[in-house]
Amino acid sequence: MDNAINMEQSYHQLQVLQQNIQQVIRGKDNQIKYILTALLAKGHILLEDNPGTGKTVMAKTLAQSIGGKNARDTSVFKRVQFTPDLLPMDLLGAHIYDEDKKEFIFKKGPLFCNVLLADEINRASPKVQSALLECMAEHQITSGDVTYKLEDVFFTIATQNPVEMEGTYPLPAAQLDRFFIKIIFGYVDEDTELEIYNNYLGISRNLEQIQTVLNIEDVKFLQAESEKILIHEELVKAVRNIVAQTRQHAEIVLGASTRSGITFLKCLKAFALINGRDYVIEDDIALLIKPVLDHRLIYKNKEAKSRVLDAVLKVELDRLSRLNLAK
C-alpha cells in the first residue's frame, strides 16, 4: 500500500466539491465541512434542527454533486421520507413472486444506493429505525437466509426535528451510535439570510442545475487518502483520555465506547484532510469533540450536557500545551 498522501489532488477535489455545494447552501461552511468529514471517515451524519433550515436541501446538493460511473447515475442517491406508517420492508426491500420464473425474488429497497437521505428519521417508529442498524454499521442487509452487500460507498444523511416536537420518536442509543457526527444545522446570520431572500430564485435554479463534480471512485480515493493522515501519539492518547473520562465522570450516566474513540480518530483524520493538512492538530480535537461524542453520551441533566465535555476537553488541551508538540 502506498502511504504517500496526494495532498494537491485531494485538496483540489475537496475545494471543488465544497464550492459546488456553496452555490446552493449559503452561510454553512462549517456544517459542510462536518458533513464531508463524516463522508470521508466512511461514516454517517445526523442533522438536527427545526423545519426550514436547509437540512434536506443540503443532502440533495451533496448527492447531486457526486455521480456514478456515468453522469447523473440515478442509483447514487435515494431519498426516503420517514413517516409513522413506514415499514422495514419499505427500506430494505422484500421478496416478491416472479410469475415468469415461478419463484420468489428479492426486490431491493432504497437502501441499495451510495447516498441515502433519511428525511425526518425520528418520525418513523423504533421498529423502522432499527432496520437501519445493520446496513449503517456493516454495509449489508440480511433478508431471510441471504445477506446482500451494499455499495462500497454508503453514506446516510439523516435529518431529524427536535424530539420535543409532536409526532417524533427519540432515536435509541444504539441508533445514535451509528452516526459518526451529529450537528445542529442552525439558522444563517442576518446578512446571509437577507442575501437568500433577495436571490432565492437563483439559488433554487442552482439546485436544479447543480453539476456533478466528483464520482464515486473519487470519493473512495478521498476516503483512502484520509486514512493516511498523520496523528501524533499524544493526540491518540488525548482521545483515549477523553473517552475514558466520559466513563468515569459523575455527571455522565453512559460514557463513550471504544468504538466511539475509533470513530473520533477517523473523523480527526478526515477533518484534517478537508482543511488541507496531512496531519491532525489540537484544534481539530476541540472542533470535533462535541459533534462526534455528545450524542453518544447520556447525561444526568441538561446542565451537565452543557458543560461536562468542555471541562474534559480543557484538561486534555492543557496537558497537550505543556508538551508543546511539534508537527
From TrEMBL:
InterPro entries: ATPase_AAA-3, CbbQ/NirQ/NorQ/GpvN, ChlI/MoxR_AAA_lid, P-loop_NTPase. Residues 245-304 form the ChlI/MoxR AAA lid domain. Pfam families: AAA_3, AAA_lid_2. It comes from the Bacteria. Residues 44-180 form the ATPase AAA-3 domain. PANTHER family: METHANOL DEHYDROGENASE REGULATOR, MOXR FAMILY PROTEIN. This is MoxR family ATPase. It comes from Polluticaenibacter yanchengensis.
